Amino acid sequence: MSEVDTTSKVDDFRRLHHGRLPGDPLVLPGPWDAASARVFAEAGFPALATPSAGVAASLGYADGQTPADEMFAAVARIVRAVDVPVSADVEGGYGLAPQELVERLLETGAVGCNLEDSVDGVLKDPREHAEWLAEVRRAAGDRLFVNARIDTFAHGDGDPGQAIERAAAYVAAGADCVYPIGAPAAVLPLLRSGILGPLNAGGRVDGEGPSPAGLGELGATRVTFGPGLQRRATAALREISAELV
Question: DSSP secondary-structure letter at 35?
């Protein structure tokens, strides 16, 4: 993929996050391999966002245990399989320096990335993480859409005020979007009122909780599903296997 093609896709991906009406969030399914990516693209989704846990499962690893080289290779295969923009969940960046992280992401053809603010379940200092995000932004310029994941609901006390404070620091550092993962749907309006720019919410594929449109009405700009789709596909495969046995 040429740099011109990648730049165009980044621009398209960024535009998809702006000017959205309430109840019409950007819905980004999470492919775990090339085959699932093609299914989602053929269904008409305008972009995709890989889940690190889903990719890990497809490679035979537990969540958070995928070697960096294998994760980047998996993302590259997904990107090659489809024409739509693909954002990649690269967890905490695998200990790579910002410049190297950006170069590795661009080599895959990804247009964006998720970056977490916790390590092994422990929240990072928000100021230090914001400084690191700023370095990522400087290295990437406009070539990557940075989605800053906020883990206060997953690994903190779930204080919405703390999530809003972290969001402000990350947006100021250059994040294009923030993702308070695990935030209850009821808290989304409060988060929306206190956060500038696009807001990512987690959707469910088990019929529990609001629909993507419902999450949009509560304030979500975009909706992702983590490894939910991969796990649902695995459950379906188990049922088929049981019937065959």
Answer: H
